[in-house]
Design a protein that fits this description.
heterodimer, A: about 280 residues, B: about 300 residues, 6-stranded mixed β-sheet
């Protein structure tokens, strides 16, 4: 008796046009991660600051004696500073294996044999990481702005600082883009998620350490552009219309960020292929 | 296995295609036509079979030549082609962390099927390839044979018009191999799926395909219907002799008879037109050897392959 039955039938149903497969990749990746309890715990912890700030906003709006807790532009800038650690956790947890695991299990040739371009594949993977990073940066920050208006029953703060909405969006997008592109590029260079995670964290800490040493030696922060983290912080201060925290020119930091994203895109273009050619 | 009519358009065509990996020429001016049905892509390891499939998929860009698949130009319409193709790669490949049904349904969605249809097809296809009972198991726990089947399932889930099967029986035990070949035969003959089966195993190609393209060192060594390639050739005999077989073989070859084998065991001898058993007996007498076994035989695909690549 043959091992197969005769149930195989030709398919005459609808088919989606090529171009939407990146959504399939992103949705599948998001669903998979939402099914992990450890990851949900990390996400919950990442929203801890949001809840604390929400209580502070409520108290300041309802108890005039606690006016010291009232929000300001600095409040939102600080919010992002504190969220940095969660951005690192989420980037490492979600991003390190996104391409490395596919490379380890030869999944790339399966993906790219479908009606799916390399750009779509990368977009799908970026979508997974960007979704969770925006969930710990952009979404809680905008929600806080909304809560402030609700608790104070006034749009005064929002109207006085209307630039906060694009500032929050711009800063979050810059931070998320840099983290997503660099992590995906590193992930495409390896077949080990663990190695990729160490490489990413190492690059962050190493560049910060180099900057710290040079800052101590020169008594100046002109070399802040050497640190990945310092670049984001420097640009962040400018976006939030606050005095920059380092002496280095912010366009230098912006240039470094753009170069890193460009370099990452170049690495992805070279590494995400259906066939690995060794010459 | 029937030979297609010459009027039917081919499912794939290569016109003078060359592929270069650095200094290494993987394909050299390959001109080949893949008719509908099951076509074997035969050749030893390193002949360029996988490269040819990857070029047709658009994974590698040729340095010269043009390719068409299902009437579409590979360079101009890769996405439209891949939507109608199924590819079973040679090496193991899966999306980590998924069970079989999720993986196959996911592949169906990537190929453009709506989610509910992809899931339904995944169940059907997994039953078809013999993994129905194991479809909720994580793929990392699968044996080599099961991994081969899951690769076939992901290639089939979106109901392709053309299947590329790259060494589909690799690593399978004899029973699994027979079952895989039965599936391939069923797809080609009863399900109307065109397929290109790349293999270095002659029996696999002979068991499943009506047509064959023989690749050797990146070039086409022979192509056509297997039946045609086997007929119209010289008469073949199985022959075993006792005595100085070496001298006997040298004598036969001087007379234009081709011998494959050592003479210690049964060898295959290809006589020229007009020659026959009498000439073999006469040669045996001349070289003072005893003929212990002489039987007419038929040309095999192995003979065609050996002749095409010039091997003994």
């Amino acid at each position: 008796m043959p091992i197969h039955d005769q149930s195989y039938r030709r398919y005459a149903g609808p088919r989606n046009e090529p171009g939407s497969a990146w959504l399939v990749i992103a949705a599948a990746g998001i669903r998979t991660l939402l099914g992990r309890k450890l990851f949900l715990a990390v996400m919950l912890a990442a929203w801890g600051q949001f809840f604390v700030r929400a209580v502070m906003f409520y108290l300041s709006a309802n108890f005039p004696t606690l006016n010291v807790l009232a929000p300001s532009v600095e409040t939102f800038r600080q919010f992002f500073d504190i969220q940095e650690i969660f951005v690192l956790f989420v980037t490492v947890y979600v991003g390190s294996g996104l391409i490395a695991n596919d490379r380890r299990s030869n999944a790339l040739q399966i993906y790219l044999s479908k009606p799916l371009s390399r750009v779509e594949y990368v977009a799908g993977k970026l979508g997974i990481l960007a979704f969770f990073l925006l969930m710990v940066t952009l979404v809680p920050a905008l929600a806080l702005l909304l809560l402030e208006a609700m608790f104070s029953a006034s749009l005064a703060f929002l109207l006085d600082n209307l630039f906060l909405v694009p500032a929050i969006a711009l800063y979050a997008l810059m931070e998320v883009s840099l983290a997503s592109f660099t992590m995906l590029a590193l992930s495409s260079l390896s077949t080990s998620a663990r190695y990729t995670a160490m490489l990413y964290a190492g690059a962050l800490f190493f560049t910060a350490a180099v900057f710290g040493i040079l800052r101590g030696a020169t008594a100046s922060s002109m070399l802040a552009w050497l640190s990945l983290r310092a670049n984001v912080e420097q640009i962040g201060d400018v976006i939030f219309r606050l005095p920059p925290r380092f002496e280095s020119p912010w366009p230098a930091s912006a240039l470094v960020v753009l170069l890193l994203i460009g370099l990452s895109a170049l690495v992805l273009e070279r590494r995400v292929r259906g066939v690995e050619v060794v010459t | 296995m029937t030979t297609p009519s010459p009027d039917v358009p081919p499912v794939a065509r290569l016109d003078e295609v060359s592929v270069q990996y650095g200094d290494q020429a993987a394909l050299r001016d390959v001109a080949a036509t893949f008719p509908p049905g099951a076509v074997g892509l035969l050749g030893p390891n390193g002949a360029g079979k996988s490269t040819l499939l990857k070029a047709l998929l658009g994974f590698v860009t040729p340095t010269a030549g043009r390719m068409q698949v299902l009437g579409l130009d590979v360079a101009a319409s890769p996405m439209q082609i891949r939507a109608r193709l199924g590819y079973m790669p040679e090496s193991d490949g899966h999306v980590p962390g998924m069970n079989a049904v999720s993986f196959v349904a996911y592949c169906g969605q990537l190929a453009g099927l709506p989610r509910s249809d992809a899931m339904q097809r995944a169940h059907e296809v997994l039953y078809y390839v013999g993994l129905g009972e194991a479809r909720y198991r994580n793929l990392e726990t699968y044996s080599t044979g099961m991994k081969q089947r899951i690769k076939l399932a992901q290639a089939l889930v979106h109901d392709p018009d053309l299947l590329f099967l790259d060494e589909p029986t690799n690593g399978m035990d004899p029973k699994g191999r027979d079952e895989m070949l039965a599936l391939v035969r069923d797809l080609a003959t009863r399900k109307g799926v065109n397929l290109i089966l790349s293999s270095h195993l002659l029996p696999d190609v002979e068991a499943t395909c009506a047509q064959v393209i023989v690749l050797y060192r990146g070039a086409v060594a022979a192509q056509g219907a297997i039946a045609d390639l086997k007929t119209g050739r010289r008469e073949v005999f199985e022959l075993r002799v006792k005595g100085d077989a070496g001298a006997f073989i040298r004598g036969l070859e001087a007379d234009g008879v081709e011998c494959r084998g050592s003479g210690e065991e049964v060898m295959r001898v290809f006589v020229k037109p007009g020659q026959g058993p009498r000439d073999l007996f006469a040669a045996a007498v001349r070289h003072r050897v005893q003929v212990r076994h002489l039987r007419p035989s038929v040309p095999t695909l192995e003979d065609v392959f050996a002749e095409a690549v010039g091997e003994e």
